[in-house]
Specification:
Blueprint lengths: L2 H7 L7 H9 L4 H22 L16 H34 L7 H12 L3 H20 L12 H36 L18 H31 L11 H45 L8 H22 L8 H10 L2 H26 L1
Length: 373
């Protein structure tokens, strides 16, 4: 069965109505969908601002053109989320195809196809995404009027616009998260109980499983975008004192860290145990052979020099082979990839720190003004 036919069978987007509409009917790719989302956000924001007469700031009201947060979310955060949303339906295909063509393991293609389709066709996925979208939309609708320095609280129409946008983005974002979790489960099913043939000299420095490393790093980049969004929310909560009745909002930071770790290490852990097992078995085989040869060399002391030399050379070769196999990777990433991941983790703290510093500076300035007066 060719990769093309497998790809046709795994058109997983058909199990989600929005993805099916965007990919099958509108023929959009992740990048074009993201760009379209950004352009749409600009157009809708300007239209709503014009209709509601909130383009420019007024006393006690923040104008759209002076509020950077809706633009940041609409032009960057949301498009990236929507682009990754489409990408997640096809990413698993790419990884499976790379694993199928690799020499690391053997895959039962029909079994994997059935597994993938069964997991992606579960109806509860759409229901849970809808529930999340409704919940967060309600939270946004309630909290937005309290944001004094925000365009979304300037009138009812901007608030409704952001609420509707939140519903759409959270729905697709929830499906995206479910896809990532499902993909991790698929990786465990594929790699969990397989005997892996790790290549110690593979140029990818991952034993031939760089496809997993690339996938994990891309998901880490995605989660870092979520972290930036969380940082923006934290900035608003801290600087505008809207978190008194919604202190649970701060729980998104540990939730983000947990999600970041799961998204990056989840797929890698699927192969870690198999890679570790393959390395240990390889070392044990060499060690047993080395022990046999090493024990036998004493009996060759009484033999001729040529026989002793051959056995000594074999022992040396076994030591060299052991050293080479001892360098077999047990993780499907290198130091460079891990460093990139670590740089993405603290993203939500940036907005939080900015908010804390700004609030402290404002408090200090007020105290100084009071003293001077």
């Amino acid at each position: 069965m060719t990769n093309h036919k497998l790809s046709q069978q795994r058109n997983l987007y058909r199990f989600d109505p929005v993805a099916y509409l965007v990919i099958e009917k509108l023929r959009l790719f992740p990048l074009t969908f993201a760009l379209l989302a950004a352009v749409t956000a600009i157009g809708v924001y300007l239209f709503i601002g014009w209709v509601s007469n909130t383009l420019w700031s007024k006393p006690g009201q923040m104008g759209l053109l002076q509020d950077w947060i809706p633009w940041f979310v609409g032009i960057f955060i949301s498009p990236v989320t929507l682009g990754y949303y489409l990408w997640s339906f096809k990413a698993i295909n790419k990884v499976i195809q790379d694993l199928e063509t690799s020499d690391v393991l053997e895959i039962d293609k029909l079994e994997i196809d059935q597994l993938v389709i069964n997991l992606y066709s579960q109806k509860w996925r759409k229901l849970s995404a809808l529930a999340s979208a409704i919940f967060f939309s309600i939270i946004v609708f309630i909290v937005r009027p309290r944001l004094e320095d925000s365009w979304t609280s300037s009138s009812l129409l901007p608030g409704l616009t952001i609420t509707i946008a939140t519903f759409a983005v959270v729905y697709m974002g929830s499906i995206l998260v479910l896809n990532l979790i499902t993909n991790i489960w698929i990786f465990y099913k594929i790699l969990g109980k397989k005997n892996l043939d790790i290549n110690p000299l593979h140029p990818d420095r991952c034993g031939g499983l760089q496809c997993l490393s690339d996938y994990s790093l891309k998901t880490a980049y995605l989660v870092s975008v979520l972290g930036i969004w969380i940082g923006v929310i934290e900035y608003q909560v801290i600087t505008q004192d809207v978190g008194k009745g919604f202190s649970f909002v701060h729980l998104v930071i540990p939730l983000y860290i947990f999600l970041s770790v799961v998204c990056f290490f989840g797929p890698l852990l699927a192969a870690h145990s198999g890679m570790k097992k393959a390395k240990e078995e390889s070392l044990h085989k060499i060690a047993r052979q080395f022990r046999a040869e090493y024990s036998g060399i004493y009996t060759s002391l009484a033999e001729d020099t040529e026989t002793f030399k051959k056995k000594s050379e074999k022992i040396q070769q076994l030591r060299t082979l052991y050293t080479m196999n001892d360098e077999l990777p047990v993780w499907t990433f290198d130091v460079k990839t891990f460093r990139r991941y670590l740089l993405t983790v603290p993203t939500p703290l940036i907005g939080t720190l900015f908010g804390i510093v700004q609030k402290l500076l404002i408090t200090l300035l007020k105290q100084q003004l009071i003293k001077l007066s």
